[in-house]
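Field guide to reading this record: the first block holds the primary sequence, the second block holds the structure written as discrete tokens, and the final block holds curator observations. Each block starts with its own label. This record concerns Bifunctional uridylyltransferase/uridylyl-removing enzyme, catalogued under organism Halopseudomonas litoralis.

BLOCK 1 — SEQUENCE
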Amino acid sequence: MDHELFDPSQFKADLALKRSPIPAFKKALRHASEVLQARFEGGRDIHKLIHDRAWFTDQILRQAWSALACPDDPDIALLAGGGYGRGELHPHSDIDLLILLRDGSGDRYNEAISQFLTLLWDIGLEVGQSVRTVSECQQEARADVTVITNLMESRLLVGDESLRQAMLEAVGPQHMWTSAEFFRAKRAEQHDRHAKFNDTEYNLEPNVKSSPGGLRDIQTIGWVALRHFGTSNLRELVGQGFLNEPEYNILAGGRAFLWQVRFALHTLAGRAEDRLLFDHQRALARLFGFEDNDAKLAVERFMQKYYRIVMSLSELNDLLMQHFEEILLRDAESADIQPLNSRFQVRNHYIEVTHPQVFKRTPFALLEIFVLMAQHQEIRGVRADSIRLLRDHRHLIDDDFRSDIRNTSLFVELLRCREGVHRNLRRMNRYGILGRYLPEFGRIVGQMQHDLFHIYTVDAHTLNLIKHLRKLGRPDYQEKYPLAWKIFCRLPKPDLLYMAGLYHDIAKGRGGDHSELGALDATLFCQRHKLPAWDTHLVSWLVEHHLIMSTTAQRKDISDPEVIHDFAVQLGNQVRLDYLYVLTIADINATNPTLWNSWRASLLRQLYTETKRALRRGLDNPPNRAQQIADTQHAAMDILVRSGIDEEDVEALWTQLGEDYFLRHTASDIAWHTEAIAQHPEHRGPLVLIKETAQREFEGATQIFLYTPEQHDQFAVTAAAMDQLNLSIQDARIITTSNRFSLDTYIVLDADGGPIGDNPERIREIKRGLLEALSDPDAYPAIIQRRVPRQLKHFAFDPEVTIFTDHSAQHTILELSAPDRPGLLAKMGKIFLDFDISVQNARIVTLGERVDDVFVITDADNQPLSDPLLCERLQNTIIRTLSYGTRENNMPQSMDI
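BLOCK 2 — STRUCTURE
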């Protein structure tokens, strides 16, 4: 009896003070909550904490039952179910109750049951209850695996134990749900649950209870064991020979860790919250004693521990579920054994060792098994006993093992397999082999980056990149990635690409430039694996420069021949360009599925094509701007003349345009713009053209062309109007003619990141909205005030604004890195308007929770910003406008986990 938590004598005295029992119950509940919270903050063992709460709830329910129900009647009993039935109760966990009636007891308990449940409600105890007879339990359990699961782990609170035993007998495996049937249902249930979390332990906001590797996976093992062995006690399963001691320690230790996290989550949220939301991750990291260091944030270190533990639990769940499958489903199968070599054979499509000493006698078999699975696609996986042996012998992978030519040859052989490379690297990671063989990879296992851009841990992202590389070589991906597919299929050595992929982010979390550090690791890897010098240099170069293609495409004006030439000089040859392009495509897709859109695809394709042309021309032949402009004009004029447009009218317009216009646009677009302007009387107001284009440059995005008398507030007005129209600006090209007209081209996507499409009504809506805004710019469109999404609020940081002048180009460049938020570009437009600043060009890049935008700006006289005080005020205004504070959570002081 825990008198500090619940004192029966004090409770009875409190009951006697008032006519209603409710105050006494509420007082007891309040007192227990305070005691348990103090014990939690004092670092009490988590097992005792959750059992303490369950024990206290037992006392309250028994008191409530004795006060209002029929405590001595043998035909009615009160049972605990679910986690509460197991004696596990977190601060806001469900309290599942079953009121069990003997068959034929009729409705004579209805009033008592109603009074009992009403009392529980009145005292603030939220329960989930069912009222069933033994026969009804049997009927419900036969139809629903969830019901049978709850009944199996029920626990008597009040009543006759023989009544519960009668119910258990009625729903026993001799009547329904044999061990095999129950296992199939639970396996399917787990498969569906995992699918809801994309079959990964590495969600940014994982569910401690339901995500892969979470508490539910441990419970599933217990439930299947309970149905088959008659016990779900992990320690007893060791005695049954189902678990070994190390596996028991992983399960028990992992469960204790997840219980601590779940208990803390409930306490922090004040409700039954099982999701590790960004709202709570930082506070939990502080609570559990993690601190920031030079390489990693405290929250990243906490989450890495979480991910590593759930990954080990998920791995063990796989092993044990497969073990159950072999025991319950395959024992009766006739064995179809196909020998592979003296060390391995395939039994009913699963590979296994030929004898238990294989890995001890021939350690290279620790890698050979994965090569064999890649070479034999009919193999579905590894048998449970052989997985155990893999786990038990992975300690043999040491420096001598890593230097052994047999092992280095096997690893390279795996990377050169035609199929199964990603699948077996993933298996190696899951079984703890990959991180042993490549210790530098082992350091990134479970390592997260606390942002919305990288939605996977570094190891998951890396293996995901390998998967995307493999997909690029498949015929069914030719339509989605035509250029990348074509290039991949002609690469002389795809395995070099996989090596670069393995190492491109391997130095994340060490501090310093991860690309440079990773290149050093990649060089050592190649040298250890005896690669030729040329291959080694290529792999190392790809790792060191894996970001330059996406950075150049998204942040620089790739219509500028000088930008293309400088990029071509960095690459040096066509081979690097081919490998880098494919690696970049895979890297973007593997980082975050929402990053890949038609606009990014078109930018990378344009950069690849123009760089290829520059390399063919020769790096000693820098681009001739004048010749490129002349060629573009000539091609555009040919189109216009064929359309019947007068050459003199065209030349009259073109003389008012600067060189940048002809560098930034294709000949077909110049012809499109020119023809529309020639046919548009000036008195009719702004000209708005919208084209869903399949051209190489803008493929998949929508181009909006505006022609209107120059207004100083035009960018601000346009940005605000497009924001109202739920358009996302990807690129802005703004040209002012010598007669003060503005030719603006905006590349846009819908707010969801997709193209506008050919929806006539949507196009009419956009055109109407823009015409209204541009026709009356003084009626400035209101910037829509949208709620900042919950996740973005937890990644607030001070905006960074850099302003510098390019005197050779006669403009000022403003670089902005800031937290993303609704209406950000419209706010920037308003700031520029307030400062009397004109926007000449803009590159818009959104990466998860942050934006990295570049604006080319001038003052009202189209001159660079020359006043340092003006630049300082502009900088401060942007920072002040785009900043919003972070919310710190109040939690107890740190505790050890």
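BLOCK 3 — OBSERVATIONS
The domain at 8-177 is CATH 3.30.460.10 (Beta Polymerase; domain 2).
The radius of gyration is 34 Å.
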